[in-house]
């Protein structure tokens, strides 16, 4: 399918993006309500385990999946060392971490407000997975200040 740049195309894209943003807002509202219900029903031992597991789950969902890119670059004829340089240049770790913190900022605020970061080992697990700013904050706006 090919789209022509017409006057109708720009509103179509804008409307699609607006609809997607609304859906994301609904998903987060549902998740926040569900999380509150679940979190407050957990005993302290299970809260500690969940608090330590959440950061790895978030990171697994948000970290770029570079295997398909590597495969495509290799199929295009690039050597393995060149592919690695392209991946490193395209996905610089510090930039990926900043984008990841921004992407999960609402969830981090939810977790912080619910006390997830206060359970034993949770704050450390979030920090180890790069979800807290270098200063230890869950606020991604502090990335800009550092």
Automatic annotation (TrEMBL):
SUPFAM superfamilies in UniProt: Ferritin-like (SSF47240)
Protein name (Swiss-Prot/TrEMBL): p-aminobenzoate N-oxygenase AurF
Higher taxonomy: Bacteria, Bacillati, Actinomycetota, Actinomycetes, Streptosporangiales
Organism from which the protein derives: Actinoallomurus oryzae
Superkingdom, taxonomy of origin: Bacteria
